[in-house]
Specification:
Elements (H helix, E strand, L loop, with lengths): L2 H12 L6 H15 L3 E3 L6 E3 L7 H17 L8 E2 H7 L5 H13 L3 E2 L5 E4 L1 H24 L1
Antiparallel strand pairs: 1-2, 3-5, 4-5
Helix pairs in contact: 3-5, 3-6, 4-5
């Protein structure tokens, strides 16, 4: 095998990792379709508003908040920047910081949330789909009932 043949075969194998824009956009459509049942983003402020139809745990609230902020920054409504625990507390209606620290720590250790700077938190993009799938399974009966009315 020549060096050129080797390089071509290597590229062919590695090409399986490459996603097209269409695949990425299709995936984004699915994420948005599932997300809109759980939260929405205020267009003027980028504020994430959680659905009152569900009794979310603090962990779920944190994930939805960080997801919403991620989407809002991609919409260029707000700048892309991680949140500190005080901001998360305020955005979630004043849940005490002491109540949020354990779920945040677990989300970081589970690689669902990243910590790009000390004391700052952001969503781990790769975790969004799996988290939404889990929430969809957990809350689907309620979502279905909501859609029937």
């Amino acid at each position: 095998m020549t060096l050129n043949d080797f390089e071509e075969q290597k590229k062919k194998i590695l090409h399986e990792l490459v996603v097209s824009e269409d695949e990425t956009l299709d995936n984004l459509k699915k994420l948005v379709s599932k997300s809109k049942h759980f939260f929405f983003i205020e267009g003027a402020t980028g504020r994430v508003v959680l659905s009152r139809d569900f009794d979310f745990s603090n962990t779920e609230k944190i994930m939805f908040l960080l997801m919403g902020k991620y989407f809002a920054s991609n919409l260029e409504i707000i700048p892309r920047k991680p949140l500190d625990i005080r901001q998360i507390s305020e955005e979630l209606g004043g849940i005490p910081i002491t109540t949020l620290s354990a779920p945040l720590g677990k989300l970081v250790s589970d690689n669902l949330v990243n910590k790009p700077e000390k004391g700052k938190y952001g969503i781990a993009y790769h975790a969004i789909e799996t988290f939404l799938d889990d929430m969809w399974k957990k809350y689907k009966p309620k979502v279905d009932a909501e859609n029937e009315t």
